[in-house]
Amino acid sequence: MASVIALQPRGQFAPLQDTAPVAPPSRAEALAQVLLTDAQVSPHAMVEALRLHRARGGRFADVLLTRGLVAEAPLYQAMARVWQVGLLDTAALRPDARLIDRFGAVNCMALHLLPCRVLGGGTLVATAYPEDFHRHRPQLEALFGPVMMTLAPRAAIETALLAARGAGLAQLAETRVPLPDSCRRYRAAAYRLPSAILGLVLLLAATLWPSHALLGLTLFALLSGTAFTGLKMAALFGALLKRKEPPAPIIARLPIVSVMVALYREANIAPRLVKRLGKLDYPQELLDVLLVVEADDHLTRAALDRADLPGWMRIVVVPDGTVKTKPRALNFALDHCRGSIVGVYDAEDAPEPDQIRKVVDRFHARGPDLACLQGRLDFYNPRVNWFSRCFTIEYAAWFRLLLPGIERLGLAVPLGGTTLFFRRAVLENLGRWDAHNVTEDADLGMRLARRGYRTELLDTTTFEEANCRPRSWVKQRSRWIKGFMMTWLTHMRDPMLLWRELGPRKFLGFQLLLAGSVLHALLAPVLWSFWLLALGFFHPVMQILPEGRFFLLMCSFMAVEISLIVFGIAGLARTSHKLSPLWVPTMVLYYPLATLAAYKAAWEMLVQPFYWDKTSHGEFDQIG
Q1: How far does the chain reach from its first CA to its final CA, in angstroms?
Q2: In angstroms, how far apart are the furthest CA atoms of the chain?
């Protein structure tokens, strides 16, 4: 197997990007003439395709394919005639892996250039885009000497490349983030003995001094709960601040936007996903949707094959690796993307049709320090049951109050896992996603902030499916909490460096959000002990605290509970669901499941820290 080093560009050659320059008009018109002569495209459709190509740029072949105007085989036959080169027999495409390593498998994948074999005095190089070949010829000749161009479809080049270097590319996808910044250095065994000692100390204290131990835990729980709730209330006021939105810019030429959707065991929802993404209002020839599927997920691949994908959607198959996570799949698929803006959706998502246009406008209006845009998430099934109502209230408060407030307060934004859009160059510079972190989004948000980049919340909504089953909800929430734990431990390896990179305010926000939320979930049962008084029971702390101080503890606990209710009602009021605010107080019965999930997450941190607990989708899908 090729080493990871060999998969990347060598020497003085920087990583290349597929910038899709405008093909010479004469070539485009010549290709149009050949296709018209062969009766492959109607004259009316060809006129429209040429108009779009002149107006929007890009490759003329992509315009024809994404619009579904011509099949791939006759298109490449026509291209071979126009460019006067051979068309490679894809069935016999057996590239020399050593040539691939010299150019770099990543460059081969990104540029769809595949050095195949040495013939006579030159090297045969297959390309899917002949108009790009001459732009890269100097680099190719510097590596291989004289080169000869031949044509092969993009999918054939990708298949041949994966056959030759798929294992190495899969390994590279797992190690993109530099080791000092990655959680893959985490070793669960190192935390087992300290955790066991802490547990024994707490058990001993509870046995010998039960009231004092409970008081200590109560004060610590109240401190963490107050800190996290205080962040929420500060974010509430921050979200109420009006931000001046930039005017819609005039963009001379729209960029290509790539969108990745990682799918795993999603055969039931894949056809609906294709239908929903088909409603996006953005030029098809500039929209590049990648449906990213694991190699062993045959059911999902078969479902997508039956879905009759349009030309601007394609399947990317991720080779098997040592971990099977969403960030690893995204890392692998990014090399297949054509766009300078890259987005991420989830399998059950239904984005608003104008979302991509808003993303392009915002990136164009802001400076280069804006690296990421985060859209809102909401649910299309909020009334299935009590559980879905609580989940809807929680998401409303998170995406309509907490995240916007955090952004406007100038704190680091923990990203959500979907409706994310990045400047691709920034994403590449940061090492992409950490393939081992089960909340790769929150980790990436922190790494963006540490490098001085900004994230903004965008006024657009993606609707998805609320998790309505308690068991499935606990599995999903435990993954999120485990990821918060892992992200905190990873970034706190060098607290002073984190302080210098984030600054005091963002450093404090990082602690309150990640550590505060986790501790609040873990220690919440200690605070719930105060409900014993409402039920007429005696509280053990009352016998060691003066009445006034115990009353102060009670008031602090009630202040936290009331603040959470106010926060939930304020978030719900910003949605269009018209759910009664009376549902918000009932979440006192909802939060214990978060505590259960937190203990599950803590246990997994000690036994299987990189395990991805898959969430099922499509069970309560109420829209087409």
Answers
A1: 44
A2: 96
For the segment 530-557, what is each residue's pLDDT rounded down to a tens digit? Answer: 887 777 777 788 878 888 888 888 888 8
Tell me the per-residue pLDDT of 361-408, one tens digit each, with 9 for 90 and over. 999 998 889 999 999 999 988 998 998 999 999 999 999 999 999 999
3-state secondary structure of 245: coil
Q: Which residue has the tokens 């058990």?
A: 203
CA torsion sign, 182 to 188 to 194 to 198? positive
For residues 351 and 419, the answer to whether their CB atoms sit within 8 Å is yes
Over its C-alpha atoms, the chain yields an Rg (Å, rounded) of 27
Q: What is the DSSP letter of 269?
A: T
Cα–Cα distance measured from residue 433 to residue 448, given in angstroms and rounded to the nearest whole number: 11
> Cβ neighbours of residue 44 under 8 Å, at least 6 residues apart?
none
Both tokens of 524, joined, read: 């919440």
**Where would I find the beta strands (DSSP E) of 264-419?**
287-294, 313-318, 341-345, 350-351, 370-379
Strand partners, 314: 290
Instruction: Estimate the crossing angle of helix 516-528 against helix 470-491, to 10 degrees.
Output: 130
| All structural domains of the chain | 5-174 (3.30.300.160), 192-238+254-624 (3.90.550.10)
